[in-house]
Amino acid sequence: NFVTFKTQPLPDFETNQPTFVGVNSFEGSVTVNGLGGASNADVGIEYSVGGGSFQEISTQNVSSVPTDVEFTVEELPANTNITYRGTFEGSDQDLATANEVSFTTDPELVVTIPSGASDNVTDTSITVTGETVDLGGASSTDAFFQYRIKTGENEPNNPWRSTDPVTLQSKETYQQTITG
Predict the structure, then answer these.
(1) How far is it, in rounded angstroms, from Cα 27 to Cα 1?
(2) Has residue 129 got a pLDDT over 80?
(3) Do 79 and 134 touch, CB atoms closer than 8 A?
(4) pTM beyond 0.90, yes or no
(5) Following DSSP, what letter does each residue of 46-86 receive, concatenated?
(6) Which pLDDT score, from 0 to 100, does residue 118 have?
């Protein structure tokens, strides 16, 4: 007796390095080069915080290749090891996970904003000071301040703005002046 079976190509997809890593978030992507035997697939990512169990976030349906599926994960702890990987569920019921990528979220910054010091606060500017707590094993990090200007008590807040980034090589204090 002979058993006959037919093989199908496997899905071809990979987890990419993150395109952005912040203190509490990251942006990543999965490149899909082939759907295997499926006509379409739900592609997503799952991530692990500090070596814990994997959590899946929403998926996107893919029907043409090649394509990149991009994701943003938020509300992560600072200075923590994160591992993420692509997931694939084909219309033909194929389930697969891609390679794992690991990185560390940025360390938190302790920020002190002076209040009422006449040499630091004017009608149009303020000098703010920040201090890195830990670089989390990185050789350097880019630090910047985000701020928005409130124009009135009952008016909505203006959009967030950022100062130019400053590259820090170690645990250190730095200052920037915000004008506007």
Answers:
(1) 53
(2) no
(3) yes
(4) no
(5) EEEETT---EE---EEE-SSSEEEEEEE-SPPTT-EEEEEE
(6) 41
Residue carrying structure tokens 């500017």: 125
Structure tokens at 92: 């033909």
* Residue 117 predicted with pLDDT over 70: no
- Identity at 98, one-letter amino acid code: A
